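Sanity check

After download, print the first record. It should look like this:
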Amino acid sequence: MKTVVRLFIYGLFATACLYSCKSSKTISVPSDKTTNKQGNEDAGRSSNSDQTAGIEGQVIWVEGNQMPQSSDIKSQSSASGNGKPAKRTIRIHQLTHINQASLGDYLFGDIETPLVAEVETDEQGYFKVELPPGRYSIFTVEENGYFANVFDLDSYIHPLTVEKSKWNKIQIRIDYKAVY
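Expected structure tokens:
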């Protein structure tokens, strides 16, 4: 009987671990503050265009203690927990498996898959880049390497699928200097 209970508990634990790996968090992003590949403002283009597809979103920087504080209980939100917009360079590679990139303590080093696009965010962290339909991995360029913290169940790094005539809206949360 103890063996059956242990197997059941191990099964629940394994299931919880598998479901804790989440794919990209989607959000609504204003399209009037985005930039294209060349860094030019792209206020004239609607993200719902029938002719184009790609990725748009915002980069957020989070650092420091993110543990709930007694003052947070009353307000139910903390300004520091939300992070702040960050200006970064974003690199989009062909879909990258974790075995195709060298991983240090919290940043990636060399990425073996081909670079598809590179884009700069604006001062508010917004970006927009047109891409052909396909599967991609997205990284931010940091001082000592490349950052990504989203993985799917097959160990692909920050996987995104671009479909014809659709825009993916994402938020990239850079939190390697945060404590939870």
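If your output differs, re-run the checksum step. Summary of this record's structure: Helices lie at 2-20, 70-75, 79-82.
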